[in-house]
Amino acid sequence: MKITLLGEDGIRLEATNGPMTIEAERPDQTYSPYHMLGSSLAFCEYSLLASWATHAKLSSDDLSVEVRWTFIEEPHQVGHMELKLIWPSLPEARHNAARRAAELCPVHRTLQHAPTIAIELGGAA
Asked: 3-class DSSP state for residue 46?
């Protein structure tokens, strides 16, 4: 797998041979927590859709996933995310089914219904 940083507000995940890599378009770009958030959504969507494709006897070899986000302020946080499935070999007759499958991604669902987060402070382990 390869994750490519698409600026400060997006990533692309695509299947490649070998270990997972993270690449930036600029040498000064860092992999931020927002890129990590987008990557978790993209990886979950890719995994789910590749599995769905196998069961549907479809190829997912050319599937890639792009995630983009915009921020809102006060407080500064992600306010909107867009998911783009790039899948040239997917027959048009299967687009709606793929969209429905993508909506089942656990990370997708978690982001739609935010969990509570408990913060615990402690001393030495």
From this structure: helix
118 belongs to a structural domain = no
Pairwise CA distance, residues 77 & 104, whole Å: 24
Model confidence pLDDT, tens digit, residues 74-112: 999 999 999 999 999 999 999 999 999 999 999 999 999
How many structural domains comprise the chain? 1
For the stretch 16-66, pLDDT in tens is 999 999 999 888 999 999 999 999 999 999 999 999 999 999 999 999 999
The angle formed by the CA atoms of residues 22, 9 and 61, to the nearest 5 degrees, is 50
Q: For residue 38, give Cα distances in angstroms to 9, 49, 62, 95, 103.
A: 9, 16, 20, 22, 15
Beta pairing, strands 21-24 & 10-14: unpaired
CATH number at residue 103: 3.30.300.20
Range of the domain at 108: 2-112
Q: How far apart are CA 7 and CA 29, in angstroms?
A: 8
